[in-house]
Amino acid sequence: MALLELSGLTKRFGAFTALDDISLLIERGEVHCLLGENGAGKSTLCNLVFGVHRPDAGTMTLGGEPFDPRGPAEALQRGVVMVHQHFNLVPNMSVAENLMLGRASAVLKPQDIIVRMEQLAAEYGLEIDPEARIDELSVGERQRVEIIKCLLGDPQLLVLDEPTAVLQPDEIDALLAICRQVALRGKSVILVTHKLGEISRVADRTTVLRQGRIIETVAMEGADIRSLVRSMVGRDVQSAGSVLAAAVDIEGKTPPKSSVDAAGPVSPGDPVLQISDLVYRDPHGVPRLDGLSLTVGTGEIVGIAGVEGNGQTELGLILAGLAAPSAGAIVVGGAQVGGCTPQEITDAGVGIVPEDRHAVACIKELSVAENLFLGAIGKFSRVGLLDKSARRKAAEAMMRDFDVRASSPDVSMASLSGGNQQKAVLARELSLDPLVFLLAAQPTRGLDVGAIEAVYNRIRAARDDGLGVLLISSELEELMAVSDRIAVIYRGKLVGELAAGSFSREAIGAMMSGHAHV
Amino acid sequence: MVMKNPKLARVAKGARLELVPLQVLVPVISTIIALGIGLLIIAATGASVLEAIEAFWDGMAGSDFNIGASINRAISLALVGLGFIFASRANLTNVGGEGQIAMGGMFATAAALHGAGGLPLGLAFIVPLAVGTIAGAVWGGLAGFLKAVRGTNEVISTLLLSFIALPLVYWSVESFHLLRKPISDVSSLPESAEIPDTTKLPLLFPDNGSPLHIGLLIAAIAVVVVWLVLKHSTLGLRLRAVGLNATASRRAGMRTSLYVILAMTVSGGLGGLGGAIMILGQQFYLTSDFSSGYGFDGLVVGLLSRGSAVGVVIGALLFGFLRSGSINMEISAHVPSAVVLICQGLIVIVIAGSAILTNRKVTR
Question: What residues in A contact B364, CB-CB < 8 Å?
Answer without folding.
Answer: 13-14, 16
